Amino acid sequence: MQIKVNGRLYNFDDNITLENIINQLNISSQNIIAEVNGEVITKEKFNKTVIENNSVIELIKFVGGG
Question: Would you say 18 and 44 are in contact if contact means Cβ atoms under 8 Å apart?
Fold first, then answer.
């Protein structure tokens, strides 16, 4: 199935979770926030959120500084 992540199209297996997508893309889940089809998903729900075909995911990493 096709999923758009941060503006790029990717192919993933069916019934994949948000956590699996993050891991397959080698993105650290520390300090990120995810939005799936316009809905913010908390880190605690990454492993329970099953992604559907043609979903749009935005992964935003927070960087400290000052």
Answer: no
Q: What is the pLDDT of residues 26-45, one digit of tens each?
A: 998 888 999 999 999 999 99
Q: What's the whole-model pTM score?
A: 0.90
What number of H helices and E strands is found in the chain?
1, 5
Q: Is 21 helix (H, G, I), strand (E, B) or coil?
A: helix
Look up the CATH superfamily of 2-61: Beta-grasp domain (3.10.20.30)
Q: What single string gives the DSSP state of each residue in 4-20?
A: EETTEEEE--TT-BHHH
